[in-house]
Design a protein that fits this description.
about 850 residues; alpha+beta; Immunoglobulin-like; 8-stranded parallel sheet; 14 helices; 49 strands; binds ligand MIG
């Protein structure tokens, strides 16, 4: 291993470019700014009058219902309540003509099937009733209340405020019961439970952020309210700078509002939080199924260059047998930071490099920022000017702001035409062999102090509306990633693209994965990543991750090791580190740590079939891959607030060590049976246990009844087809799971080229039966074996039969390697192993105990 390092003796001394000093300055300015912003925010919160400038909606009169909607008016304001589904009501407050057309950047589904609605009412009130909820409208003053069909109050407007305006500002106040808790709100760096905090939604380049820094990069104005095990959701679809006050202004109320635009929100009813999330993601769209390589391990730094360094990193992964699917190129691969170009000195022959890397199983992802260098000799700039594609100043001139390339113009992604153009720009990178695109700096971030972005009145075409930056800011990143994804799809129509973006808005999961920006190598940041990613998941984003090891500072060996242990369970799994930091590769900390890091990544690769199924679920149902416990245990107070544990897919509970020098941790296991993944020890929840967690072990538990699909170890996802496909069975009575598979790369699955089957395990009397249903779909995996591993079996079985025929008993588990069919008993781990050819048909295996 040392030989490898020595062969590249001088690496990685990176010459300090001039912008380092600039970064220093910026950091300092950013810190000052942060303080400034915090003071302002504090002043705002303290000074915010409860009602002083706000004009609440007063007396409204009802108009007759039309279809599934009913409107209320006071001559100036119109409130329209539309029933989209029995558990989904849209509340839209408009103000004459000033609000513009009804349009949403987030909403993907506008066509809802008819649903039965009853309208009733008397002089002072109206009732809108569906099969699941009842909306009671009080006309004077105008207030809304949502009830379930048993007459239980779900949520209501605050009695003294309701909906109000103050100039362009709009706000809605709701009553806040003492035992209600809030989750979601996208990327926030504090506790899982949002009660008792305030938040601003304004996409921000938040370099150096920490606990409670707000706002961060992405903004998703959706939350789930949970009270006594019952959930509802509110999605405030407004792209202006908005804010959520979850009980700070008053302990009895929460509120949400924005600096402009409409008071326009969607109300969802559960009572199951999974149902709320399912409906929300039906409305705004779900994370599409990623390619398998996109959910392997990815290695990144700011920046790997020149070419020899990239090859060196790739060689190290393969020679050291550390699985990896993708390498990232950060801004130094470009010619003077001009997007869509290569630095020809550092990367003289990118196509050759990428083709060599692809031969050894690496995909390459390149960063592409929005800022296009003002340079009359640069084609992207020329095309942008010629096509009139750039954001304008109010005086009609092209807006110019400084970012990495110096003075730059910014594509106006609010225009369909511009997004389509942007998509075509990827042609060169793709023909060079680039597989994925990393969109950064798309707040949009500009080196401006103190705003860090363009002025609020810069002009976006917004398809003819000429909207101010104030309206487009929060969707700029999402629209950029939409243009990117669509462009990649046009250029490679039958390949699932990976786009990863720093900024997005509600519904952004349709286009891109996200990461949590510039975190730091501290234990606190490691801990924050859990509630942060869990809440992103509760906000519809399934494919999310934090920079493993931390971006700023650089990790200690212990921190990196612990971080990779949990990072292997991040939905999106990438190491990244900042410019000038020490090396942060899995082998950077000596042999002992390298061995642990290898095993962390190997575990993710063995679990790939399981992880891929979790992604399939996310695409189907909107359930995230990293799940807050409250999704499964909404009525269990000890599970609901859990910040330091999460479910990885359906059946694994991850309880990482988040503190330095700790080799034990306390774990809360919710109700039901749980197995320790490492020892197979069985627990009955609910219980608090203390488990050993030496540096090389992350506490990990498997739900009783789980059937976990796993595969053989590979060094990259496409190295070899899955063989054997193993089902790890952790018995608890009868249980079953859906198993899904496809080619992992193309869109053929949308044409039925997939495999879907049900795997069941049933214990009855002295028999343990495993059945697989006849698979549906036309995907045919190549010839392979199936392996069943039945855990927690005290004794060797008397007999094993498949399809009524006796299976050979082998002496040892190792003998299974050579056998086509057979079973063996591992008496040390109390596991029965059964191997059989995968016939692609329904089958039954019977174990006689
Ligand atoms: O101003 O491209 O969050 O991941 O390495 C810094 C350089 C710009 C910020 C991203 C980070 C990336 C860095 N970028």
């Amino acid at each position: 291993m040392h030989a490898v390092a020595e062969a590249h003796g001088s690496w990685p001394t990176i010459p300090a470019p001039t912008f380092l000093t600039m970064r220093g300055k910026i950091t300092l300015m950013k810190k000052t700014l942060l303080l400034f912003v915090q003071v302002i925010c504090l002043a705002f919160v303290v000074a915010q009058p409860v009602a002083a400038d706000w004009k609440s909606l007063g007396n409204m009169s009802a108009t007759p219902p039309s279809g599934n909607a009913v409107a209320f008016s006071d001559g100036q304001n119109t409130v329209t309540l539309s029933v989209l589904a029995p558990d989904l009501i849209r509340v839209r407050v408009t103000n004459g003509k000033s609000n513009g057309p009804d349009y949403s950047y987030a909403v993907a589904k506008t066509d809802w099937p008819a649903t039965k609605v009853e309208f009733a009412g008397d002089k002072g009130s109206r009732i809108i009733r569906t099969s699941e909820i009842e909306v009671r409208v009080q006309l004077s003053p105008f207030r809304l209340a949502f009830y379930d069909r048993e007459g239980r109050l779900i949520s209501r407007d605050a009695a003294n405020l309701g909906v109000a305006r103050d100039g362009d500002r709009v706000r809605s106040w709701k009553s806040m019961p003492a035992d209600e808790h809030y989750f979601g709100l996208g990327e926030k760096s504090d506790t899982l439970d949002k009660r008792g905090h305030t938040y601003v939604m304004w996409n921000t380049d938040a370099y150096g952020w920490g606990a409670n820094t707000d706002p961060l990069y992405q903004d998703i104005p959706f939350f789930i309210g949970l009270r006594q095990g019952k959930a509802y959701g509110i999605f405030f679809d407004n792209t202006y700078r908005s804010s959520f006050d979850m009980g700070v202004e008053s302990p009895d109320m929460y509120s949400f509002g924005a600096e402009g635009g409409e008071l326009n929100y969607y109300f969802f009813y559960g009572p199951d939080p999974k149902k709320v999330l399912g409906r929300y993601t039906e409305l705004v769209g779900r994370s599409p199924l990623p390619a398998r390589w996109a959910i392997g391990y990815h290695q990144c730094r700011y920046s790997y260059y020149p070419e020899s360094t990239v090859r060196f990193i790739a060689d190290n992964f393969r020679q050291r047998h550390i699985p990896c699917d993708a390498l990232f190129l950060d801004i130094h691969y470009m010619d003077g930071y001009r997007v869509f170009t290569w630095d020809k000195t550092r990367f003289p022959d990118p196509a050759r490099l990428l083709s060599d890397l692809s031969q050894s199983g690496f995909h390459v992802v390149t960063i592409v920022d929005p800022g296009i260098k003002v340079d009359p000799n640069y084609s992207a700039y020329q095309e942008g000017v010629a096509g009139d594609y750039f954001v304008k100043k109010p005086d009609g001139k092209i807006y110019v702001g400084k970012v990495w390339p110096g003075e730059s113009a910014f594509p106006d992604f609010s225009s369909d035409k511009v997004r389509a153009w942007w998509g075509t720009l990827y042609k060169g990178l793709l023909s060079d062999g680039v597989s994925g695109i990393w969109n950064d700096m798309n707040e949009p971030s500009v080196f401006e102090v103190p705003s860090k972005t363009m002025d609020l009145d810069e002009v976006f075409s917004d398809n003819g509306l000429n909207s101010p930056h104030a309206k487009i800011h929060n969707v700029y990143g999402m629209l950029m990633s939409e243009g990117t994804r669509d462009g990649l799809l046009k250029l490679r129509p039958n390949e699932r693209p990976l786009v990863i973006t720093r900024d997005t808005y509600a519904g952004g999961q349709r286009y891109a994965a996200v990461w949590t920006g510039d975190n730091s190598s501290t234990w606190e940041h490691l801990a924050i990543s859990l509630p942060e990613i869990m809440n992103m998941g509760l906000s519809g984003i399934a494919l999310a991750g934090a920079d493993i090891g931390g971006f700023a500072i650089g990790a200690t060996p212990e921190l990196y090791t612990r971080w990779l242990e949990v990072g292997a369970f991040y939905p999106y799994c990438r190491t990244h580190t900042a410019y000038g930091n020490p090396n942060q590769e899995p082998w950077s900390y000596g042999n002992k740590i390298e061995e642990i890091n290898r095993r962390s990544i190997e575990l993710r690769y063995r679990l790939l079939p399981y992880l891929y199924n979790a992604y399939h679920d996310a695409a189907q149902t909107g359930l995230p891959v990293m799940r807050a416990l409250l999704l499964d245990y909404p009525d269990d107070p000890a599970a609901v607030g859990q910040d330091s544990e999460f479910l990885f897919g359906d059946d694994l509970l991850v309880a990482p060590v988040l503190l330095s020098n700790h080799t034990q941790r306390e774990v809360y296991l919710p109700r039901g049976v749980w197995y320790d993944f490492w020892t197979d020890r069985r627990y009955s929840g609910p219980t608090n246990i203390t488990v050993d967690a030496p540096l090389e072990r992350i506490p990990l538990f498997v739900r009783g009844g789980a059937i976990v699909p796993t595969q053989q170890l590979v060094q990259y996802t496409s190295e070899a087809p899955i063989n054997p496909l193993t089902f790890e069975i952790y018995p608890d009575g009868s249980s079953s799971r859906e198993y899904y598979e496809d080619d992992g790369l193309s869109f053929e699955y949308q044409r039925g080229v997939s495999l879907d089957e049900r795997v069941s395990a049933t214990e009855s009397g002295g028999q343990f039966n495993i059945t697989i249903s006849s698979p549906t779909g036309t995907y045919k995996p190549s010839a392979r074996s199936l392996m069943f591993k039945v855990h927690s079996q005290r004794n060797s079985p008397h007999n094993v039969e498949i399809g009524g025929k006796r299976v050979n008993a082998l002496r040892a588990v190792a003998d299974l390697d050579q056998a086509v069919e057979g079973w063996a008993y591992d008496e040390i781990n109390n596991t029965v192993w059964i191997k059989t050819p995968d016939q692609g048909m329904a089958m039954t295996a019977q174990i006689e105990k």
